[in-house]
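[Discussion] Sanity-checking designs against the backbone

I'm trying to build intuition for which residues belong where. Below is a structure token string of 424 positions. I'd appreciate it if someone posts a full sequence so I can compare it with mine line by line.
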């Protein structure tokens, strides 16, 4: 594939930063090479002399002298080389992507960093982007300043509807509109709706991407955090043409404060993201990268999956508790589906056209914070009757109280609307 058609002029104008390229060379140079090139501080005068963390099974993870020195230093922009190698093997095992030899990985500071860098490589001023009709707001904040045009694709309980997607693209092509270069998808445990796009639908969307020549960004931080029997087959594993940019995150499965994620895509797209990183924060935090490398080294792939199984049981139990509480407190007021993955219950409130004011004013006043549905639309001024509630962190008692308070908010809002209608 020729990626130059997908890349903005700004991205094309980026050039390698010489000092960053020298750091890359220093890492791959023969052992007897002496580098006076870089601006690296001397680790001997850093205040940290040992880094050791205890894991939840009681075992210790301690960095040896070499790892400690590396953890406290600059590394090549693409990532700490031993971690990069581990992640390459991880991706092959987790997704068996076709065309693996043509792909690469870049480590980023969380999925959002990968998302913003990839979107900014593709979306130029006024470019269209395909998005589901409600979607993770981290996309909007990146592309709105570029005056991107959102082409929203209606969804049902299985995600964006392929027939409608095709119809929208066909009409657009027919009328000579600018065609989108990319579609944003969050396929597993979707934020905010908690769905999992089924395999057949993933295949259908991928076929349309090939037909209408656009890339797919699959932002998939909940891939290992689903509650179904069957493992989801990622878009990357279906990608026979090199169209999928996969975003992984350690935020939900290891720690969000560690700020680590990684992008997997064909090498030219990874190189574009790498150049952007060279000009921004140079690389993802090395200490996090080295800790992550050590953890994956200790656990291996199977150990990581075992940890994910533990997470799934943990969050599934929370999901079930919140769903039961929603039935108890919100019965007759709302509709919702049981989330299949991720952290969120997406609650459609009956008879309220827009939940924004109810949540942002009355909710804040009454001591319950929830996310108003409109925050997940292309423009938060569009009315939305939904509310997103997280079951990830609050205690059972807090979830119980929060949903009781939500019921009170809804009743108060309905009463106010009723009085207004009677008055007019
Ligand atoms: C769909 C989605 N993408 C990206 C992110 C950001 O994740 P990270 O912490 O890896 O930047 C989130 C976090 O909530 C998310 O839900």
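Best answer:
Here's mine. Compare freely.
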């Amino acid at each position: 594939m020729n990626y130059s058609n997908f890349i903005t002029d700004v991205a094309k104008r980026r050039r390698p930063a010489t000092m960053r390229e020298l750091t890359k060379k220093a890492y791959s140079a023969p052992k007897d090479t002496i580098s006076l090139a870089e601006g690296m501080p001397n680790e001997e005068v850093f205040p940290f002399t040992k880094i050791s963390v205890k894991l939840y099974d009681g075992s210790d993870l301690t960095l040896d002298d070499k790892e400690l020195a590396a953890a406290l230093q600059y590394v090549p922009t693409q990532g700490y080389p031993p971690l990069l190698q581990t992640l390459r093997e991880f991706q092959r095992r987790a997704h068996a992507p076709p065309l693996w030899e043509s792909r690469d990985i870049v480590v980023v500071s969380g999925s959002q960093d990968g998302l913003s860098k990839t979107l900014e490589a593709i979306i130029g001023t006024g470019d269209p982007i395909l998005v589901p009709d409600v979607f993770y707001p981290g996309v909007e904040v990146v592309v709105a300043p570029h005056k991107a045009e959102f082409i929203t694709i209606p969804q049902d309980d299985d995600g964006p509807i392929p027939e409608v997607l095709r119809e929208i693209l066909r009409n657009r092509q027919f009328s000579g509109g600018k065609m989108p270069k990319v579609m944003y998808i969050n396929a597993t445990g979707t934020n905010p709706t908690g769905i999992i796009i089924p395999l057949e639908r993933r295949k259908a969307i991928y076929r349309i991407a090939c037909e209408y020549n656009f890339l797919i960004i699959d932002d998939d931080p909940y891939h290992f955090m689903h509650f179904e029997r069957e493992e989801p087959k990622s878009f990357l594993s279906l990608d026979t043409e090199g169209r999928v940019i996969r975003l992984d995150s350690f935020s939900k499965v290891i720690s969000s404060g560690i700020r680590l994620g990684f992008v997997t895509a064909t090498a030219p797209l990874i190189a574009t993201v790498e150049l952007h990183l060279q000009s921004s924060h140079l690389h993802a935090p090395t200490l996090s990268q080295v800790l992550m490398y050590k953890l994956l080294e200790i656990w291996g792939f199977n150990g990581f999956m075992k940890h994910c199984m533990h997470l799934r049981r943990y969050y599934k139990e929370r999901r079930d508790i919140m769903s039961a509480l929603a039935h108890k407190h919100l019965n007759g007021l709302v509709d919702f589906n049981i989330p299949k993955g991720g952290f969120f219950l997406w609650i459609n409130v009956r008879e309220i056209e827009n939940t924004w004011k109810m949540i942002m004013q009355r909710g804040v006043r009454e001591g319950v914070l929830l996310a108003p549905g409109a925050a997940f639309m292309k423009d938060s001024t569009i009315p939305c009757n939904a509310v997103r509630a997280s079951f990830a962190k609050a205690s059972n008692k807090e979830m119980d109280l929060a949903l009781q308070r939500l019921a009170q908010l809804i009743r108060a809002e309905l009463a106010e609307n009723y009085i207004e209608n009677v008055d007019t």
